[in-house]
Amino acid sequence: MALWSRRSALLAAPAMAAGGLVVVGASPASAAMSDALTFVASRATSSSLDNAAVGTTFAALLTLFDSTSAAAGDGSMIGTVVNVTVDNPAKLIVQMKLVLRLSAAAQGELHLSSMHAMVVPSPVQNPVAIVGGTGQYANARGDGSISYPTPDRINFTLNVNT
Questions:
Q1: Could you tell me which of 43, 77, 83, 80 has the C-alpha nearest to residue 63?
Q2: What does the alpha-carbon distance between residue 89 and residue 75 come to, in Å, rounded to a whole number?
Q3: 46-59: per-residue pLDDT in tens?
């Protein structure tokens, strides 16, 4: 009987680890979750990129739809042209920050960042990083892609970890 009590006490007692105190048998307060999200955005308003040069800043207000074409929120993108290639036609290399404000079941914002060749239209899947968020996505991280299949359509495919 004494052995059982000592063993139970050892299992319930804190243990020291390299990083500090660890309670044996404890579980994290909130488990990490991963979601695969897809959105289609249309440009509600946007500034022009005609005759863009290095340093040109542009912005757009977006209307978001989910994979079933239901309204999913809105968003914005702001970018700066950091290079214009010598290709024919020339490609704009842009550094972009995007905010997707999600409504309906998913409340909160996703904040994204990317640097890529902005070719419109193009089916190319350009990489994007999820660098944070608000609300349900306050601790969001992850990655995904952004593409421009038509001049007024933007596709997002995101792997969100919270």
A1: 43
A2: 29
A3: 998 888 999 999 99
